[in-house]
């Protein structure tokens, strides 16, 4: 069904053209996102443009790991900590997904991984064969078809109580674009890492090392520079100090990511609920069709918090094409390390 592969990497003008015709594209599907990844220094653009016989075109945002970590040509759409990839373009169907998997398998790379948009999981699910390794995942998404009024009606009673409590207690909201407020946000993020480490029975130093490796401040600043006004940091202040915050990416849809909180400072102020409602309103004002709240895993508490805001769970999977049993080996080693540390997934 593939007529020919037009280009790899995909020229930016063509990428923007295909992106403009995709009403459900995620913010990280923009070429500027891959530019930020290249600026991070660990990845190079390996995106692929597919042209089909019926005239349709789709893009697979794809990056290749640089250095020794990329020996064997590891391709990812996207790496962990860089959001969701998958196909960009209108009317993506199972034949497209199957053709793309066939093309990627022909490359002969050691590993190719794809973490698609959960809303577009069905074509991939139907295209799977026994050679594709799947890693089950779950994400939450809010439908914004009803605008701000519909979003408010979709909130739970507890979410509305939190928002009203924050407004009564004078919780102050600030928003910054293109990387503004990242310094204060990052300190709050590391405070959250401390809390997560305690819950998970993970040594604090190890938790900080993992967080700084996965999400160094420079990486977030690179995102802000390349996405500009579509990269927003929202912070809630209690007694003049940052208490809750998040990063929101905007495009045809919105993607909320990396929520952070100082739980002791937040207390019963409702600061977390006010941050979420503020960003939801921004998404509605920008005309976003959906609001992605990202990965939830198997965390019941995280799922409950997201569902307070009208989010619906979507089960999907990350796809791996492995020449050798890389995924199985990696999973085994991680489980062994967690057992040694007494690590608890919560």
TrEMBL record:
InterPro entries: Acyl_CoA_acyltransferase (IPR016181), BioF2-like_GNAT_dom (IPR038740), PG_Glycine_Bridge_Synth (IPR050644). It comes from the Bacteria. This is BioF2-like acetyltransferase domain-containing protein. Residues 157-296 form the BioF2-like acetyltransferase domain.
């Amino acid at each position: 069904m593939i007529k020919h592969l037009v280009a790899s990497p995909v020229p930016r003008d063509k990428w923007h053209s295909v992106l403009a015709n995709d009403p459900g594209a995620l913010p990280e599907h923009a070429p500027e996102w891959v530019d930020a990844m290249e600026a991070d220094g660990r990845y190079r653009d390996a995106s692929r443009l597919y042209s089909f016989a019926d005239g349709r075109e789709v893009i697979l945002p794809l990056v290749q790991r640089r250095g020794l970590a990329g020996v064997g040509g590891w391709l990812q759409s996207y790496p962990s900590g860089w959001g969701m990839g998958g196909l960009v373009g209108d009317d993506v169907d199972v034949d497209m997904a199957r053709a793309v998997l066939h093309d990627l398998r022909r490359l002969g790379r050691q590993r190719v991984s794809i973490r698609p948009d959960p809303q577009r999981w069905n074509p991939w699910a139907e295209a799977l064969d026994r050679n594709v390794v799947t890693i089950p995942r779950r994400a939450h998404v809010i439908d914004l078809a009803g605008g701000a009024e519909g979003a408010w009606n979709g909130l739970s009673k507890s979410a509305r109580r939190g928002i009203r409590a924050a407004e009564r207690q004078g919780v102050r909201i600030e928003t910054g674009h293109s990387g503004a407020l990242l310094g204060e946000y990052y300190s709050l993020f590391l405070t959250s890492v401390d809390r997560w480490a305690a819950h998970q029975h993970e040594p604090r130093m190890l938790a900080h090392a993992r967080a700084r490796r996965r999400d160094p401040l420079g990486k977030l600043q690179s995102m802000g520079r390349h996405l500009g006004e579509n990269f927003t940091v929202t912070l809630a202040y209690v007694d003049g100090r940052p208490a809750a915050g998040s990063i929101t990416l905007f495009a045809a849809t919105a993607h909320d990511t990396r929520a952070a909180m100082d739980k002791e400072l937040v207390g019963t102020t409702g600061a977390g609920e006010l941050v979420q409602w503020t960003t939801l309103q921004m998404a509605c004002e920008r005309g976003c069709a959906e609001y992605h709240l990202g990965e939830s895993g198997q965390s019941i508490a995280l799922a409950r918090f997201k569902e307070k805001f009208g989010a619906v769970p979507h089960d999907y999977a990350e796809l791996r094409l492995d020449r050798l049993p890389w995924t199985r080996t990696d999973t085994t080693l991680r489980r062994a390390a967690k057992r040694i540390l007494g690590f608890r997934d919560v």
